[in-house]
Design goal:
Elements: H1 7-31, E1 41-47, E2 68-75, H2 79-109, H3 117-133, H4 138-200, H5 206-222, E3 226-233, E4 239-248, E5 254-256, E6 258-259, E7 265-266, E8 268-273, E9 279-284, E10 300-301, H6 310-319, H7 334-355, E11 365-366, E12 373-374, E13 377-378, E14 384-390, E15 395-396, E16 403-406, E17 409-414, E18 420-422, H8 427-438, H9 442-445, E19 446-449, E20 452-461, E21 466-474, E22 480-481, E23 486-487, E24 496-499, E25 511-513, E26 525-527, H10 529-532, H11 552-562, E27 565-574, E28 580-590, H12 592-632, H13 636-669
Parallel strand pairs: 17-18
Antiparallel strand pairs: 1-2, 3-4, 4-5, 6-7, 8-9, 9-10, 11-15, 12-14, 13-22, 14-21, 16-17, 16-24, 19-20, 19-23, 20-21, 25-26, 27-28
Amino acid sequence: MTRSTFASFTTARLAMAASQRSLDVTGQNIANINTTGYTRQQVDLVSLNLKGGSIYGSSPASKIGYGVEVSNISQIRDQFLDVQYRNQVAKVGTADAHQAVLDQLADIFDETDKDALKKALSDLSSSLDKLSSNANSTEFDSIVRSRSQILINYIHQKAADLKSTRAENISSLEDTTIPTINSLLSNIGELNDAIWKNQMLGNPSLEMMDERNSKLDELAGYLPINVSYKEVVIANGAKYNYPVVSFTGSNGLTYDLTAGEHGENFATMYAKAQEDGTVSISLLPATNYPTKSPDPSMSIDITNLLREGTLQGTVDMLNKSGELDNPPSDYRGLGYYEKSFDSFVQTFANTFNKLNQNTTPYKGVTGSPSLGTAKEMITSGSEKAQFSFGFQTASGNYLKHEMIEINGEHYMFGDGEGNTIKLGDTLEDSLKNLAAELNKKEKNLTLMVNEEPVEGSWSYDEDLKALTWTSTEVLPANTEITKKSFKNQDNQNISIQYSANPLNIKNYDLFQTSDGTRTFNAGNIKISDDWMSNSIHIIASHDKDAGSTANDNIILMLKSLTDDREFNYEYSYKDEKGETKTGIISYYTGNFSQCYSTLENNQGIDSSKNASVLNNHISVLKETSNNKDSVSGVSLDEEGINLMQYQRSYTAAARLMTTLDQALDVLINNTGIVGR
């Protein structure tokens, strides 16, 4: 097919239009050189050649194109570099989340430039040393107690800081990280929808694509994502691509984060704190059907499926305890430091309580009378005989299985079952129950008064605070009653013999828990109430025959601070039968100061190691980012060259049009005028 005479003007016009559009795009690139996330744009040009020519209508030599056509405005991106960047930013996210918590732990345990727990241990040792030279001294005992209180204050401070660190990270996860991830997924879905609609109207929406790519890069920092592009063909044959975002778990399964006709639907994530301080992460994957109100109950637990990213790093720190997990996990998170510190405190408290254990039984009632007194008088014929055991100076209450012997009969206190006397809530109630029990035996009802048997009964007189026997009948007139008038039926003095239960050992624990449990931890240890009130003290020696200066038990306490011992962490688990068992993990052997120093050093080592990993990942990320910028970023040098190139191209196209105009002028106005 032969070109028409004026076809070359179209070629020149299209060339000028293409150059003008290229200049416009170059100006757009220069204008956005400092815009974050902007991707360099380019004009896609194709050579224009009409179809339908016939080999019979024109010779091959006459087939010429019809110029240039602007087919599209596109972004210059390398998808391989995008994948590299997103994979690397996920690694940075993991290490950065680890480092954030490790830095908080450094503030808690690092005592390189400050005096705290290790200094308190040293001061406690010094105070015990002074007490050993002043055994049984109340003054030096109180100094040891004060030093112990300082130590416990530091322990409580660190326990509170650990608790606060865990709470802050859980709060950050629930209130910031998860909402941010959900917001990014929502934004990506909305951008997919907006880009699709704009493209249907012929707008390439490159700026919205830049925003979407920035959201994808940000999302990749929280969890590792896969981005693939799905092609959609519309009615007129045009083809469009939209990203399909997914997450692949450590189990190899893939979960969609976007779905729908063109990626407009998106997934939702949830975080939930557990009672033990750990967290669970769940995902409600995206589907091809829009959901206005997501149902969390349909979500999938992905806590143990996470591989990299800020989300994984936070879960590591909140859920993992390294070698103190059963089975051991792959990272030392907050749990390792909490469990190690609790074990340290428990070992300390149990060691000193065991050394200060008392072995002498004690009684529940102090000031209990052993002999009774008679109501002395010379009767007038209207008085009854009375014999009393006064409890005016007694305090406390009887204890279970304690014994009382009256008139040769033994009585045991208990729950009122099996011939035991029921213990009352107070001493008075217990004595009333004792009186009722005494009245059940005839032997107790008859006493010898002036060598004559007299019947009576026992009662507790609340006004006199006395256990009293009173005769049933009045005494004859002129009967003299003295303190020697009363005997039992065996003609022996009436007495109470009160003995302690051998199993009742007075608690001399120096430390106790504030929550009433039997297990010590860094949050519940405290000085025992008895030690604080000076009702107990540090036992200088367990040898009853030792002198007042004996200090062998204090020496043992001193040695306990420096002797090597095994530090164990105890945990509960279910066996194959479903029964609860206790397991023990031994994690250190040494003395108390060394154990704490090891905990401190482990934190430093973990932090240093993680910082190196983080710096390496950041270096690789920067290199990948630079590679991305070299492809997608705007360079003033390149754009300057393009300006000159497209300006000259535009000038040349204009010159072509002028030349064609001159040629046609000759053809039209100057052809065929020879001889005129």
